[in-house]
Design goal:
The protein is of the alpha/beta class. The protein contains 8 helices and 6 strands. The mean pLDDT is 97. It has a single domain, classed as Undecaprenyl pyrophosphate synthetase. The chain has a 6-stranded parallel sheet. Helix 1 packs across helix 2 and helix 2 packs parallel to helix 4. The protein binds 3-methylbut-3-enyl trihydrogen diphosphate (2 copies) and magnesium ion (MG). The site of one 3-methylbut-3-enyl trihydrogen diphosphate (IPE) has 10 residues, from helix 1.
């Protein structure tokens, strides 16, 4: 990547297209998800090397949790078990912090525990945070924040609202990438995306490698972010 390119602080990644990747190859969807996990491992290393501070990956939406067949959800849980079982130590050792956003209380207990340990054992003051959106929905997050503020009372301000979201303390995403060809957010970081640059690609997530990621960052660097100014 050219030296003039500046990394965004926070990238959101909607990892879509695993099922279609598998279907094209006449493989079960679960294999598409497994390939997607490999792509994620490579991309998170790459993002850290580029100096990106936060990578938030959309791995399971509230709608996926409610609407995908039980068998597919079990397969995804298996992948989470495998991912966190194998990669957590390496991630931590490399100086990366793990954060979870979403409601994981309905996940199998052993996974919820792995995820909680992943957050708890993260190194202090890490320069890179890998944030997993799991059973995450932007609307759900906003309603929870509203409930919290209502129960606490007092003035409702943007600052207090932001602090009541799962992402409290994180900067808003500068860039949101969606793979898989759909042109929508599908309930991802609705509040936080207010001024994110959006990048859509037809590349299916298992095929979305480092070069594709670099293309998105290069495109981001060409954008003129005005934040309502002139
Ligand atoms: C995205 O891939 C990953 C999850 C939602 C878990 P999909 O499973 O949505 O893949 P497509 O969109 O059917 O190809
Ligand atoms: C969005 O993908 C959610 C994740 C990538 C985790 P979906 O495949 O669920 O989105 P829709 O249904 O096409 O909007
Ligand atoms: Mg999809």
């Amino acid at each position: 990547m050219p030296a003039a390119i500046k990394p965004p602080r926070h990238v959101g990644l909607i990892m879509d297209g695993n099922g279609r990747w598998a279907k094209k190859r006449l493989l079960p969807r679960s294999l598409g998800h497994a390939e997607g996990m490999k792509a994620l491992i490579a991309l998170s290393r790459h993002a850290k090397e580029l100096g990106i501070e936060y990578l938030t990956v959309y791995a399971l939406s509230t709608e996926n949790m409610a609407s995908r067949p039980r068998e597919e959800l079990e397969g995804l849980f298996g992948l989470l078990r495998q991912y966190f079982g194998k990669n957590l130590k390496e991630l931590h050792a490399s100086g990366a912090r793990v954060k979870i956003i979403g409601d994981i209380s309905a996940f199998p207990a052993d996974i919820a525990e792995l995820l909680a340990d992943g957050e708890k054992n993260s190194p202090e003051g890490a320069a890179f945070t890998l944030c997993f959106a799991l059973n995450y929905g932007g609307r759900d997050e906003i309603v929870r924040a509203a409930q919290k503020l209502a129960s606490e009372g007092g003035a409702v301000t943007e600052e207090r609202f932001s602090d009541a979201l799962y992402t409290a303390g994180m900067p808003a995403p500068d860039l949101i990438i969606r793979t898989g060809g759909e042109l929508r957010l599908s309930n991802f970081l609705l509040w936080q995306a207010a001024y994110a640059e959006l990048y859509f690609t037809d590349v299916l997530f298992p095929d979305f490698g480092e070069r594709e990621f670099d293309k998105a960052i290069a495109e981001y660097n060409k954008r003129n972010r005005r934040f309502g100014g002139v």
